[in-house]
């Protein structure tokens, strides 16, 4: 019985060692890594003609703010500068800064 256990131990150890040796002999291949660029292209939005749906594409602008932009436009006429958005209730410096590149007049 001891002989069988010893023989089994030797076989197991030999197999385990040869597996490690085999693993060391196999060259590690470096798989090509696909470079993924996060590109967020947003179409410029004309704040003088945009509807609620278009205005909500701006960061931080939900339905209520979009409606406020349109209401301001209806009361005051077209925006003459992008900075006039600050006159719209709910539009602050941060919202304007986040969207300045995507706003057109």
UniProtKB/TrEMBL annotation:
Residues 1-23 form the signal peptide. Residues 53-72, 83-102 form the Helix-hairpin-helix DNA-binding motif class domain. The keyword Signal applies. It comes from Cellvibrio fibrivorans. Keywords: Signal. It comes from the Bacteria. This is Competence protein ComEA.
């Amino acid at each position: 019985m001891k002989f069988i256990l010893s023989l089994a131990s030797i076989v197991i150890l030999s197999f385990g060692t040869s597996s490690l040796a085999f693993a060391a002999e196999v060259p590690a291949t470096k798989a090509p890594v696909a470079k993924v660029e996060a590109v967020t292209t947003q179409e410029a939005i004309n704040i003088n003609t945009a509807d609620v749906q278009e205005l909500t594409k701006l960061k931080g602008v939900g339905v209520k703010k979009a409606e406020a932009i349109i209401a301001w436009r209806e009361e005051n006429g077209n925006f003459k500068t992008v900075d006039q958005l600050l006159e719209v209730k709910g539009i602050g410096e941060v919202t304007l800064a986040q969207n300045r590149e995507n706003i057109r007049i």
